[in-house]
Amino acid sequence: MTTPLPPKTLIAVVGTGAMGAGIAQVAAAAGHPVKLLDNRPGAAEKAVEGIRAQFARLAEKGKMSAEAAQAAGARLIPVEQLADLADAGLVTEAIVENLEAKQKLYVDLEGIVGPDCIFGTNTSSISVTAIGAALQRPERLAGLHFFNPAPLMALVEIVSGLATDCRVAETLFATAAAWGKTPVHAKSTPGFIVNRVARPYYAEALRQLHEGIADVATIDAIMREAGGFRMGPFELMDMIGLDVNFAVTNSVWNAFFNDPRFTPSLIQQEYVAAGWYGRKNGRGFYDYRPAASKPEASSAAAQPVPPSIVLHGTSPLAEALAKRLTDRAVPFTRLPNTTGGFVAAAGNACLYVTDGRSATRRASETGVANTIVVDLASDYATTPRLAMASAASCSSATTELAIGLLQAAGIAVSCVKDAPGLPLMRTLAMLANEASDAVNQGVSDAAGIDTAMRLGVGYPRGPLAWAHEVGLSSIRTVLKNLGEGYGEDRYRISPLIEQQHFACTRHSS
Ligand SMILES: NC(=O)c1ccc[n+]([C@@H]2O[C@H](COP(=O)([O-])OP(=O)(O)OC[C@H]3O[C@@H](n4cnc5c(N)ncnc54)[C@H](O)[C@@H]3O)[C@@H](O)[C@H]2O)c1
User: Where do the DSSP E strands lie in 416-463?
Assistant: First the structure.
């Protein structure tokens, strides 16, 4: 196993804005002397002051001893010119996100540092290969991609360009681990892991908003309450900044030669054009101005408990409903031997877990006019909310029976417009699809991608582990039906999901 850079190694951080200061803090806390350089006069000194104040706060809170805080602060050295970095063992940059600027920095440094010095770049969107292309020795450069705020976020993507020496990537990996971070290897491809695999979280939400499937607050509530995500996609976009999020989507879309998987959203473009960037300027998908109140998610009005409830089969939803109804002393009958995705009947309402078909299409293909489709939940046993859609052939009385059943089990129901997939299921399917493609294209392995998504964007579960739990065959069916429903290449199935599905089918037959 490659060893980390020893703590005596001098680390140089160039660019001492939000990210650079955070990275310098992490390296100094880990015991390294750290030189900081910025081309804005006084910025490096200011960053050092800020980091020392951070260390003092951590000491006050008992998170580090006063001596350790003092010592870590003393290891920070602001400098004024590149020549001052000659003795660095690692130079890592967090300067402006511009290819020429990053290339120039390292070309200049090649003439200053020793032959063993390695280079890291914190770029989020520029090819590490392209930055390295300007260097005489591109093998010593790798992405050392921290997430914001660097002292708090555990994930570091270690990004190898075409020319990166694997020993350099391994040294950075071991060093990030020694600094208390969780590194994952990634190949230099657009968006690396997190900024690529996360795209569907925003894209599917924007798509649904654009099509009037549900409103902002309802989609967010479904993703938080049923999906277990910390923030709904619109809350998250408002926090990131719609301008930033839109620019990242555009950059990934362009870098993938306009692959429709990543096509940006017209509705998001409108918000950006309006200057509604989110929290930072008071208005985005939500209104943050003082007089504004946050809209509520739409929840169906209370319905009576249906006179007859029959639970079919042993799917996770049927099992959870049985337990939840029993706990609430609601009478029901169980028919455990039913197959074919039929979960429950409430009077004449027939409830199924979504397979990606709209309820209307499903009703027409199966001849079950009273079809109601229900969304995925992270855990049906505890979910406080579920999304639901009714076929056009359902009467409102039938829909009310289905609502009454779910409410009797203690679940708030968000009725959404009938469309292919339902909010959580289609989002998970597309996240897993993108993650599978990234694995298939050697960007990282499945464990690395799941770890990156949990730690980089705080997903409750890695999309691949989650998709396995739901069943790859179900995920594939959802994607196939989304593709048929929309007739778009956006929903094409990753070859890895296809292969694993067929491999599982063969094993089980
Ligand atoms: N902010 C984030 O959430 C985030 C997350 C991950 C990665 N990144 C990446 O990290 C890098 C820095 O981002 P940031 O948010 O810290 O930016 P920032 O604007 O806060 O800081 C950049 C700093 O670099 C300095 N600088 C610019 N060009 C320089 C040069 N040629 N030499 C020396 N100093 C220079 C600027 O004066 C500024 O202090 C970018 O590549 C960005 O894409 C940002």
Answer: none
Q: What average pLDDT does range 205-221 have in this prediction?
A: 98
User: Is residue 467 within 8 Å of residue 427, measured between CB atoms?
Assistant: no
Q: Pairing mode, if any, of strands 371-374 and 90-93?
A: unpaired
CA distance 234 to 219: 8
Residue 386, Cβ density class (10 Å: 0-12 exposed, 13-18 middle, ≥19 buried): buried
pTM of the model: 0.94
**Interval 313-332: pLDDT, tens:** 999 999 999 999 999 999 99
How far does residue 93's CA lie from ligand 1's centre (Å)?
A: 8
Q: Domains for the chain: give ranges and CATH numbers.
A: 11-188 (3.40.50.720), 196-281 (1.10.1040.50), 309-415 (3.30.750.190), 424-508 (1.10.1040.50)
Question: Rounded CA gap, 210 and 293, in Å?
Answer: 23
Give 49's Cβ-side CA count (13 Å radius): 5
Cα distance between residue 20 and residue 94, in whole Å:
5
Pocket perturbation via mutation, ligand 1, pick of 13, 14, 19, 36 by most ligand atoms within 8 A of CB: 19
Q: Is the CB of 96 under 6 A from ligand 1?
A: yes
Residue 94 Cα, ligand 1 centroid: separation in angstroms?
4
Cβ–Cβ under 8 Å, residues 411 and 375: no
The predicted-structure confidence for 380-420, as pLDDT tens digits, reads as follows 999 999 999 999 999 999 999 999 999 999 999 999 999 99
Q: Whose CA is nearest to atom 37 of ligand 1?
A: 40
